[in-house]
């Protein structure tokens, strides 16, 4: 995997009670996040491969089956790299998904609290939202200019401005690339290149093979993680960090 240079790893200590309290005290959006996580876990929509028509309004899901598809591939987007042996948290996400948008500030705070202790990987997963693919393609196009994280953050932070619309928001999403100062000729060329969508679909198809049926879906060290509270995540991370030191 093409990872950034390893940094000095911070001491692998569990979060203190006050640190966990700080996480739990994230403003009202946290309560929404926890509710939406629970809803997404218990009532995941059935998802088809990109381009396939939906023929069911029912629910799907279940525990991922064993697959030869790796959770982290050579071209996966690694936002935080804590080095060899560190716990690896993988999130399959959809930039238009309300649950993903609600849990985004929680994950960002966790990334700060566990900086240097965990590796965090973000992977695309396309659900039945109108602009899900437009958003993912834009982020992948930005990644070609080294701006994956910046576009990832921009789309989640601006989600109320463009998400849940019935018409294409590609122009609005493009404006965020301009705000980030990207080379717009290169960005537009990447958006139009079928290889960019193919890269998004690669993640989606990997997720399908791994049993992902909705977003957000988390895996920690290769195992499905189904959090219903913030402490479910932090406790799992603490345990994985402790195990990595044994």
DSSP helical segment count:
10
| Helix and strand element order | HHEEHEHHHHHHEEH
Largest sheet, in brief, is: 5 strands, mixed
The helicity comes to 40-55%
How are strands sequenced across the largest beta sheet? 1-3-2-4-5
- Class from secondary-structure proportions: alpha+beta
Rg from Cα: 18 Å
Region (Disordered): 49-68
Family: Belongs to the thioredoxin family. DsbA subfamily.
GO molecular function, one term: oxidoreductase activity
Pfam families: Thioredoxin_4 (PF13462)
Question: What's a quick, concise take on this entry?
Answer:
This protein has helices spanning 17-24, 29-42, 98-113, 132-143, 148-157, 159-162, 170-179, 184-192, 194-209, 230-244; strands at residues 77-80, 88-93, 119-124, 217-220, 223-225. By secondary structure, the chain is α+β, with helices and mostly antiparallel strands.
Please, could you describe this protein's structure?
The protein is α+β, with helices and mostly antiparallel strands. 46% of the residues lie in helices and 9% in strands. The protein is built from 10 helices and 5 strands; from the N terminus they run H-H-E-E-H-E-H-H-H-H-H-H-E-E-H. It has helices at 17-24, 29-42, 98-113, 132-143, 148-157, 159-162, 170-179, 184-192, 194-209, 230-244; strands at 77-80, 88-93, 119-124, 217-220, 223-225. It has a 5-stranded mixed β-sheet with strand order 1-3-2-4-5. The protein is globular, with a radius of gyration of 18 Å. It starts with 16 loop residues before the first helix and ends with a helix.
